[in-house]
Amino acid sequence: MPRRALKNFTIEHLQIMDQDGNVDPALDPKIPDHDLKDLYRTMLKARMVDDRMYKLQAQGRMGTFPGVKGQEGCLGYGYALGKDDAIVPAFRETAALFYRGAPIKNILQYFMGMEEANVFPPDVKIMPIPIAIGSQTLHGTGLAWANQIQDKPGVVLIFFGDGGSSEGDFHEACNMAGIFKLPVIFVCINNGWAISVPRRTQTAAETLAQKALGYGFPGIQVDGNDFMATYVACKEALERARKGEGPTLIESVTYRLGAHTTADDPKRYRNEKEVESWKPRDPLLRFKTYMEKKKLWSAAWQEKLEQELAVEIEESVREAESEFTAINPYEMFDHVYAEMTPELIAQKEQALEFADEVAAMQH
Predict the structure, then answer these.
(1) What strands, in cross-sheet order, belong to the sheet with 184-190?
(2) What is the pLDDT of residue 60?
(3) Closest CA to 110 of 124, 99, 94
(4) The dihedral of CA 337, 340, 345, 346: what is its sign?
(5) Mean pLDDT confidence for 358-363
(6) Has 256 been annotated as catalytic?
(7) Pairing status of strand 197-198 against strand 193-194
(8) What pLDDT is stored for residue 68 in this prediction?
(9) Is residue 252 within a helix (H) or strand (E), and if so which, with residue range?
(10) Counting beta carbons within 10 angstroms of the beta carbon of residue 141, is it exposed (0 to 12), middle (13 to 18) or buried (19 or more)?
């Protein structure tokens, strides 16, 4: 018998606002002006918190952390979510987290080393920030499965990076989500680099969005620096999930303008010409240009916002540092299980004995 095509697949790319702040009128989601002002303020807040954290780290008042500059376009995903929906973050989505109610203090304290700050207020549906790359895709899928089993209305949005898409956890999560048509949205923040590994050496696939097709659900690629595109793509994915049609994978193409973390030197592996080519596509700059064209932005308003946010950030820094508690590394044994096993008790005792021996030798 002759060969025949079973099915043809296509992957769409969505951009609504270009880098000059011009919006396609046919795709314009018509966001109200008061929301636009609030969204711009949130994006600026994420940028300013990031800048403040760099200074704190340089002063020895904060540990290593990943910068978010250039990736604030993820704000659109946070804006699209409803009150019952949850975010399972990676670590560069502070714009979306802030919009959903995450306190600045929690972000600061977490990167100061206070793991307890990774638990957000009860009314803020945000899961803890993970360290193991890609692990959160499984956690978020489990949460979505629980919602489905219990007939709860919430959809789960999972952020992860292009590096995370190379992890087995991601593929297992997609497989499970596709089989059970879970109410989950996978958002791959593709910033081109997994630390020093370029996206081209991670996968032979033309897009990361097409990986969804192997698991039986749709994928779409969006301009991740266009907050309108991220909002519209997320809104469409939410509608699918709420109707019981299952998951969506969104590849959000963006770029980190800074280092992977404060412990990284990107000049060792990244061409500065590449960085310069992305600066005009900065999501904050693009948003500002758009707001200016709509007569919603002015230099005076910008100055007022920066002054207000500077006060808010400094108050958060003072609060975070005043509540800071010394880190006790031996507590790691206490929280592996609900109740410590005999093996863990013995390991903790051994570790404490070793610490006492080292302290005695030093004195």
Answers:
(1) 12-14, 219-223, 248-253, 184-190, 156-161, 86-88
(2) 94
(3) 94
(4) negative
(5) 84
(6) yes
(7) antiparallel
(8) 97
(9) strand 248-253
(10) buried
CB 41 within 8 A of CB 66: no
Say what the pLDDT of residue 335 is. 82
Percent of the chain's residues with pLDDT above 70: 100
Annotated active-site residue 363? The verdict is no
d(CA 196, CA 320): 32
Tabulate helix, strand, coil % of the chain (nearest 5): 50, 10, 40
**Residue 242 bears catalytic tag:** no
- Alpha carbon distances (Å) from 208 to 115, 164, 265, 313: 32, 11, 26, 36
The reply to whether CATH 3.30.360.10 applies to domain 12-327 is no
Dist. CA 359–CA 363, nearest whole Å: 6
pLDDT of residue 193: 95
How sure is the predictor about 115, in pLDDT bands with cuts at 50, 70 and 90?
confident
Catalytic residue among 92, 256, 270, 286: 256
Q: Where are the domains of the chain?
A: 12-327, 328-363
Q: CA gyration radius for the chain? A: 22
CB within 8 A of 328, min separation 6: which ones? none
Terminal CA-to-CA distance of the chain, rounded, Å? 84
Work out the average pLDDT over 119-140.
94
**CA atoms of 105 and 101, how far apart (whole Å):** 11
pLDDT for 305 beyond 80: yes
Q: Give which of 128, 179, 117, 115 is closest to 158, Cα–Cα.
A: 128
Q: Determine which one of 52, 199, 240, 260 is catalytic.
A: 260
* 126 DSSP assignment: B
Q: Which of 269, 318, 330, 335 is catalytic?
A: 269
Interatomic CA distance for residues 258 and 252, integer angstroms? 18
The whole-model pTM stands at 0.91
> How many Cβ atoms are within 10 Å of 11's Cβ, its own excluded?
19
Would you tell me the crossing angle of helices 299-322 and 104-112 to the nearest 10 degrees? 50
Whether residue 251 contacts residue 223, with contact meaning beta carbons closer than 8 Å, is answered with no
- State how far the Cα of 295 lies from the Cα of 287, in Å rounded to an integer: 12
Distance CA 15, CA 35 (A): 20
| 61 φ/ψ angles, rounded to the nearest 5 degrees | -100, 0
